[in-house]
Amino acid sequence: MYWVLHVDLDQFIAAVELLRHPELAGRPVVVGGHGDPTRRGVVATASYAAREFGVHSGMPLRTAVRRCPDAVFLPADNPAYEAASEGVMAVLRGFGPTDGAVVEVMGWDEAFVGATTDDPEGLARRIREEVPEQTQLTCCVGIGDNLLRAKIATEFAKPPARDDGGAGAVGTGTFSLTAQNWDVVMGDRPTRALWGIGAKTAAKLAERGLHTVRELANGEPAALAADLGPSLGPWYVQLGRGLSRVQVRGEPWLARSRGREETFAADLTDWADVRAAAADLARKVAADVVAEGRPAARVGVKVRFAPFTTRTRSATLAEPTSDAATIEATVLDVLDRFTRRRPVRLVGVRAEFVTTDE
DNA sequence: TCTGGGGTCCTAGGACCC
DNA sequence: TCTGGGGTCCTAGGACCC
Description:
The chain is of the alpha+beta class. The chain has helices at residues 12-20, 48-51, 61-67, 78-93, 95-99, 120-135, 147-157, 182-186, 199-207, 213-217, 221-228, 232-240, 271-292, 324-335, and strands at 2-9, 29-31, 45-46, 72-74, 102-105, 110-116, 139-144, 174-177, 257-268, 296-305, 309-321, 344-353. Helix 4 (78-93) packs across helix 6, helix 11 packs across helix 12 (232-240) and helix 13 runs antiparallel to helix 14.
C-alpha cells in the first residue's frame, strides 16, 4: 500500500546552532533577526530552555529579551540552515533506490516521503535512525494515508509541548493517522488544528456553528462555497474529513516568484530614501532572477507605512525579462504610484516568473 | 507582544473583447 | 441603441504556512 511519511526535524534552527556552538547546550538560546534584541526582529526559534521563560517563535526580540534577559541571542544564518537542510534531504532521497521513496521538500525542516510499502513504521524507524547518524539532527515522523494526515500525525509524534497540557500528544517520535482513526483522534479538536485553517478561517467557521473537525466534516460544501469562496469552502470540508492529495511529488520545486524585503531599523521619512532602498532591493531581486535562469513576467512592490499599514502595487512587464535595469526602472515606477502617507517601515520587491501551468 | 522574511494560493472587481 | 452573457487578463488584498 502507498504511504505518506512526513518528516519534521526537531528544533531545527536551534539544533543547527547547537552543533556549531556546543558550549550553549542547555542554555536559553534565541535565534532571529540580526541577533540584537534592541533592533527590530522576531524570534525564529527559541531553545527549550528559552521557552521555559515564555519565549516562542514569532515573538518580537525586544519582548524575548524582557522575558529572558540571560538568553544568548544569535542572528539568523540562512545559508547555514539551507546547507544543513540539504544534507537531511539527501539522506531522505537515499531511501529512493532501496525503498522506491520519493521526497517532496516543504521548507528547511520538513519533507514528505512517499513510498509503497507494507511496513511504514519500519521505514519511519529507519529514517529516524539514518538522519541523526548522517547529520546529527533528530526528527519525528508522521505516517498517513495522504499528505494532510501525515502532516498532522507529526504533531502527535513530537514531544508534548509544555503548554499544551499533554492534549493527547504521545511523543514517541512516530504517529500514524489514517481514515481508520481520523475521527477518534481529530473529531473533537478545533478546526484550527487542521493544516490550512488559521485563526481567521477558524473564526469564520465558528460563526457558522462549525467549531470542531467533526462538525466541519459534516458541513455542507455548497453552503460553505457561497460563504467562503467557490474553491475554499468545499476544500475546508475536505480538510475536516481528513482528505487531501495522496501522491508525493518528487519533481524539483520551481519557484513562482522571488522577493526581498527589509524592515528598517528606523522608519524612513524621506521618500528619496525609500526610492534608494527599493532600487537596492530591485537589483538584488534582479540578480536572483538571473540566478533562477527564467525571466520575470511581473514585478510587485510592497510598502508598510507606520504604524503597520501595508499596501502593494504591481505591474506586468512589457515582456518577460531578466534585465536588471528594466526591473529596477519598473520597480521605481510602481513605487511612485503609492500614496505617500506615513513614514515607511518596510519596503519589499518581488518578481514573478512566467506561469508554467502544466 | 509595537508586530521578520520568504513564499503560495484564492478571491473579487474591473477592463476589455466578442 | 439604455443594455446580455461568457471568457480572460490584470490588479490588490487576504489568508496561510515555514
